[in-house]
Amino acid sequence: MKAIIIGGGIGGLSAAIALKRCGISTEVYEAVKEIKPVGAAISIWPNGVKCLNWLGMKEPLAALGGPMEFMAYQEFRQGQTLTRFSLDPLVKSVGERPYPVARAELQAMLLDAYGRDAVQFGKRVTHIEETPGGVRAFFSDGHIAEGDLLIAADGTHSVIRPWVLGHQTERRYAGYVNWNGLVEIDESIAPANQWTTFVGEGKRVSLMPVAGNRFYFFFDVPLPKGLAEDRTTVREDLKRYFSGWAAPVQKLINAIDPQTTNRIEIHDIEPFMQLVRGRVALLGDAGHSTTPDIGQGGCAAMEDAVVLAIALQTNSLGIEDALLRYQDKRAWRVKDLVLKARKRSDVTHGKEMSVTAGWYEELKSETGDRILAGMRETILGGPLA
Q1: Residues 238, 230: Cα–Cα separation, whole Å
Q2: What would the pLDDT profile of 134-144 be if each residue is shown by its tens digit?
Q3: 3-class secondary structure for 197-266?
Q4: What's the DSSP call for residue 8?
């Protein structure tokens, strides 16, 4: 059995490693000549960590992850702590810890695990077709690939998604802009072992520790899409949007490198239940593009990879049947994650400011129990709970 995998990002490489682990031959095709990860870092929650452990990357992943032991919310003007609690109860209840990691380093780890020379870069798929015994993929350079099945892990702008669904999908602007990057840890900004978030005015500033004595930071601001802002105005833009915010926020703005700070307008796609057509399956953002508000986008792609590999390895009624079993196990799960992230996004970013203000008040009496319970439910919904 041979699988063609379109996309060499987190989802595509996780799928390739998973299928290879199950004895299935793979060919990976990536459109760009060199992968430059979108976003500076990613929070891999225990459900994603367990998937990477299953793929044989337990030790290298632990080496990349930051020591995130506590979680805290800070009031935006004075920087006072609204709530602070340990993540240890979560770790003990789900059996694994979260790992914030730099995206470039995660990508490199996956490439090393699969084999860098095995990925065919600069191969942009144009269209696919079913054949009597499988699937054929056509590329812009004239190359044609044939396999028994095809995994579309080609991202939120997937070329293959319309073929699977039979119609186009529209990306939905979530209403906010995210700036993100990496800076050296400075404990006058936030503790080195804590996920720290400043909240106010429907905005947030967040820091997570990653390996190498670095913070992954991000700023969120509700804004119209299409503003003429880029790296040349990053510091001025953030100083304007966060005028009057606490001293650690101002210090962070002064510390960032505009040339390595990303600015992203956040979108998702309305969830859909069809992830498979014949011998073609959608995986990762191609099948469930979500906002980053619950940190589950990358984790969901890793889950997809594990479930897909197990379905193909353990079912004997044919490839089409195995893929439908993959769809059956994933469609409700990923719909739930997309909608949870959307709901969290609306509360965090002031879609209804009265609701957001109520959340700020709740944080003052938060012991961690409610927040950790929500995280626990999401994590234990994964395939390797």
Answers
A1: 11
A2: 999 999 999 99
A3: EEEECCEEEEEEEECCCEEEEEEEEECCCCCCCCHHHHHHHHHHHCCCCCHHHHHHHHHCCHHHCEEEEE
A4: -
The stretch 293-316 carries a mean pLDDT of 96
Q: CA–CA distance from 155 to each of 133, 150, 184, 219, 283 (Å)?
A: 26, 14, 30, 23, 8
Strand 280-282 to 276-277 pairing: antiparallel
Q: Side chain identity at 26, as an amino acid letter?
A: T
Characterize the bridge pairing of strands 214-222 and 203-210: antiparallel
Helix (H) or strand (E) holding 59: helix 58-64
Q: What residue ranges in the chain does DSSP mark as E strands?
A: 2-6, 25-29, 41-44, 70-75, 81-86, 99-102, 119-120, 125-131, 134-139, 144-147, 149-152, 171-184, 194-200, 203-210, 214-222, 262-269, 276-277, 280-282
Q: Give which of 320, 323, 301 is closest to 311, Cα–Cα.
A: 323
Cβ pair 328, 315 in contact under 8 A? no
Which residue type does 360 have? Y
The secondary structure of 108-120, three-state, reads HHHHHHHCHHHEE
| Positive or negative torsion for Cα 331, 332, 335, 336 | negative
Query: What pLDDT digit, counting tens, does each position of 175-200 carry?
Result: 999 999 999 999 999 999 999 999 99
Q: How far is it, in rounded angstroms, from Cα 190 to Cα 196?
A: 7
330-340 per-position pLDDT tens digit: 999 999 999 99
d(CA 211, CA 63): 7
| pLDDT single digits (tens) 113-127 | 999 999 999 999 999
Assess whether pLDDT exceeds 90 at residue 315.
Answer: no
**How do residues 194-243 score in pLDDT, each as one tens digit?**
999 999 999 999 999 999 999 999 999 999 999 999 999 999 999 999 99
Using pLDDT thresholds of 50, 70 and 90, give the confidence band for residue 85.
very high
Q: What is the DSSP string of 303-329?
A: HHHHHHHHHHHH--S-HHHHHHHHHHH
Q: Mention every residue, 6+ apart, whose C-beta is less than 8 A from residue 167.
A: none
